[in-house]
Design a protein that fits this description.
With about 270 residues, the chain is of the alpha+beta class. Helices cover about 15% and strands about 45% of the residues.
């Protein structure tokens, strides 16, 4: 009667996931359908929608859409969830490749958690001088981690005028395509962060690519090493490792990829 889907959570960043082996995508992959299914009160409710299909030779193709229906080149937590589900359903086995719009990413399970290796970080800017810092903002940096990310260091995450400042920086005139905005602060000896995410236009409980950008910039600012654990807004950690080779920064990301339930969508509108 309906079309099967999986509801998944990556540290509170939640997704509706469709798998090609369980039926055709048909009109599900449209702006209207994605907005409808991601709506919190009238749909399934999610930060985004994922479409997975096996491509042969140990490759699984992944397409990701934000809750507003816009297609994004990459989503870190959606990739972690896709890794878990692909292995759970037998779309892949052992180490495999997740084919995203930002490139092909090696994927696997390590210590019972999904892990992905990302493409090199691009356009790293440790000091976005074109952006005026507000009181309390010690640093603002930029990195392209599949999608554009701003990172703002602050003394206290709760003291940030999050909705106003996040929206302001997300659409800063210097950013051709906008950006996710990650506020980061030291909390109890650990780093924690909050993300204002474009395409959702508000706070999400986690952002995987934002965690990568944050960890890399913290390292460049001399405040972290090559391995950084970041506390998400949900309280669950994301682990970022990175190495430098050939003048490029190669990161990996690991964290939760949890199957919440399998359902069936009907009467989509």
């Amino acid at each position: 009667m309906g079309r099967a889907f999986y509801k998944m959570s990556g540290s509170g960043n939640d997704f509706v996931v469709f798998v090609a082996t369980e039926g055709p995508f048909e009109n599900l992959e449209s702006v209207e359908s994605i907005r409808s299914m991601c709506a919190r009160r009238t749909g399934i409710g999610a930060d985004g929608a994922v479409f997975l299909e096996p491509a042969g030779n140990g490759v699984v193709r992944m397409r990701y859409y934000n809750a507003d229906g816009s297609r994004a080149a990459f989503c870190g937590n959606a990739s972690l969830c896709s890794t878990r589900l692909s292995l759970e359903l037998g779309l892949a086995a052992g180490d495999f490749v997740l084919d995203t719009d930002s490139g092909r990413l090696p994927a696997r399970i390590v210590d019972r958690l999904p892990e992905i290796e990302l493409q090199p970080v691009k356009d790293l800017d440790t000091e976005s001088v074109q952006m005026t810092r507000e009181p309390g903002e010690s640093k603002i940096g930029f990195a392209l981690v599949g999608v554009p990310q701003l990172v703002v260091e602050v003394p206290d995450l709760e003291g940030v005028d999050f909705s106003r400042r996040g929206a302001e920086l997300r659409s800063h005139p210097s950013l051709a395509d906008g950006a996710n905005v990650n506020f980061v602060a030291k909390r109890g000896g650990e780093w924690a962060y909050r993300t204002f995410e474009r395409g959702v236009e508000g706070e999400t409980l986690a952002c995987g690519s934002g965690a990568v950008a944050t960890a890399v910039l913290l390292a460049k600012w001399g405040q972290a090493g090559s391995t950084t654990s970041l506390q998400t807004r949900s309280g669950k950690p994301l682990l970022v490792r990175h190495r430098e080779a050939g003048g490029e920064i190669w990161p990996s990301l690991s964290g939760e990829g949890r199957i919440v339930y399998r359902g069936e969508i009907r009467d989509l509108r």
